[in-house]
Amino acid sequence: DESGEFNRDVEALCWDLGLLTLVLPAEFGGLEKNSGTALCIAVEEIARFCASSALLLIIQAVGSFPIVHGASPQIREGLLSRIRDNRELVAYLVTEPSGGSDVAGMTTTATKDGNEYVINGAKCFATNGGVASLYSVLARTSREEGHKGLSFFLVERDRPGLQVGRRENKLGQRGSNTTEVFLDNVRVPAVNLLGEEGGGFRLAMKDFDMSRPAIAAQALGIAQGAFETMVKYSTERRAFGKFIAEHQMIQAILADSATLIEAGRGLVYRAAALYDEGKRNTKIASMAKCLASDAAMKITTDAVQVLGGYGYTKDFQVERMFRDAKLTQIFEGTNQIQRIVIAREILNEVGFTI
After folding, report:
1. Fewer CB atoms inside 10 Å of the end CB: C or N, the chain?
2. Quick one: what percent of the chain has pLDDT higher than 70?
């Protein structure tokens, strides 16, 4: 966290444990079933101690999703074998300097030229951008307005014209590598198109159905870690002649925190179960992401408060958890966007279209 460097030892351990191939087909190191739930369990447990390490699992899953579900038979087996055998990380290049939540406003282009596509554009906030060797890149393949003209491509890092930019100096989750990536006349074979031309937005939305429960699980893990820290501290720290856990104000914080965590956990694993069953989980996934990340921000803030001055120092991990929690309200769709998605789904259920 202090240096902001990517931890290769943690990455190696995750490969050894099979955590970076969880969502791949079973023949490539993944699970036969329930990969969404397994991803959430692993992410939550790791995030109790290190959100940056948990994020490594999420982004590997998110970046691999367009390959698993969109790669043509000519390249799919080779790519998935390469990821497993060479232990290669995959980054997900969607967000651009001009906007994040407005995916339909994307300006990166992919122009067909014979048997190739030529990609031009700039991506930012690319998690694993500086350490990945494969990139799932969303670009505009037609002049159709909105999301209709977007397509995914597999781009290898060693393609001429691809350049990794500066590493972001972030508030939290600093152990996760986040960079800019520039694509200047990057040529890829037409076979590197992932899914149908113009089908990129649909593929991205399906990816969200997996990733949003995972982000919620990360938030849940951060909240759980902060909660455990303040429970321990409150049963050891004395003030006014008794343990601070005996004061009702502290008890109220503990009770509210535990309730939020349990409520969030129910939503997270329901969303993951629906995903694993092949059922639509868009509304529940957004609810899980929204509730769990808001809860993580509140609980980590309360943890700093319970620890008082010590909570504001780097001697205790709650200050890092406080910083790490904020990102969960922002990426994979801000919580404002989640509320819009939830409301839209509710209204669609009663036949009211917006």
Report:
1. C
2. 100
Q: Are 291 and 267 in contact (CB under 8 A)?
A: yes
Joined tokens for residue 284: 């529940």
- Cα separation of 25 and 30, whole Å? 5
Is 332 one of the catalytic residues? yes
Whole-prediction pTM value?
Answer: 0.97
For the chain, domain boundaries: 201-349
181 conformational bin, left if phi > 0, alpha if psi -120 to 50, beta if neither? beta
- The dihedral over CA atoms of 343, 348, 353, 354, expressed in degrees to the nearest 10, equals 20
pLDDT tens digits, residue range 274-314?
A: 999 999 999 999 999 999 999 999 999 999 999 999 999 99
Q: Which residues contact 123 (CB under 8 A, 6 or more apart)?
A: 93, 94, 95, 96, 108, 129, 137, 180, 181, 182, 183
Tell me how far CA of residue 251 lies from CA of 205, 236, 247, 256, in angstroms: 41, 14, 6, 9
Q: Fill in the DSSP letter of residue 137.
A: E
DSSP of 239-290, one letter per residue? ETTEEGGGSHHHHHHHHHHHHHHHHHHHHHHHHHHHHHTT---HHHHHHHHH
Burial (Cβ within 10 Å: 0-12, 13-18, ≥19) of residue 26: exposed
User: Between vectors from CA 264 to CA 308 and to CA 293, what angle results, nearest 5°?
Assistant: 60
The encoded tokens of residue 10 equal: 């943690």
Q: Which CATH class is domain 201-349?
A: mainly alpha
Tell me which of 168, 196, 332, 345 is the catalytic residue.
332
SS3 of residue 331 by DSSP: coil
pLDDT tens-digit series, residues 170-216:
999 999 999 999 999 999 999 999 999 999 999 999 999 999 999 99
Rounded alpha-carbon distances, angstroms, from residue 265 to 54, 274, 295: 16, 14, 11
User: At 139, which helix (H) or strand (E)?
Assistant: strand 134-140
